[in-house]
Amino acid sequence: MQCPFCQHTDSRVLESRSAEAGQSVRRRRECLQCNRRFTTYERIEFVPITVIKRNQDRELFDRSKLLKGVATACEKTGLTALQLESLVDDVEAELQQQAVREVTSTELGESVLTKLQSLSEVAYVRFASVYRQFRGIRDFVEALDQLKESGDGPLPSVLDEPYEDTAQPTIMISPQ
Description:
Order of helices and strands: EEEEEHHEHHH
Mean pLDDT: 83
Structural class: alpha+beta
Strand order of the largest sheet: 1-2-3
Low-confidence stretches: 153-161
Number of strands: 6
Distance between the termini: 91 Å
Helix content: 25-40%
Number of helices: 5
Oligomer: single chain
Radius of gyration: 26 Å
């Protein structure tokens, strides 16, 4: 390791410890030429993953963008920030383990939906509504039917009954 002060290439390691939750190693070094101390970090180098969007544009995978989308879908669902971070960590780990360096936004979205399904039905439907570009109530009903068929969680029995509008029209007469 080259000394940042005198550019000498020999140094000795004084101390090593895990850093950043085990994602890197922090090393305290001493230059053998000038005897000054400096710190280095060793990190795992991940190969960048490219996301192919619907319009065929390509952009680098952005973990924070995915986390923001998931967090928006999970607002007021009771899921913790730690659960959301873990979900995004799992998706990112799956991407890194694949031999392919490009992934479609469809594959990415389906991976998120699979994980959300077991965490929160509400978050699942919210994320699906944006990701799958729901156009109307039928799209929501289809998503709810898929959840019901998967059997991963109880859905309200009200979905088993056809909707009937039993409200009577109200006529307001104002005095003149």
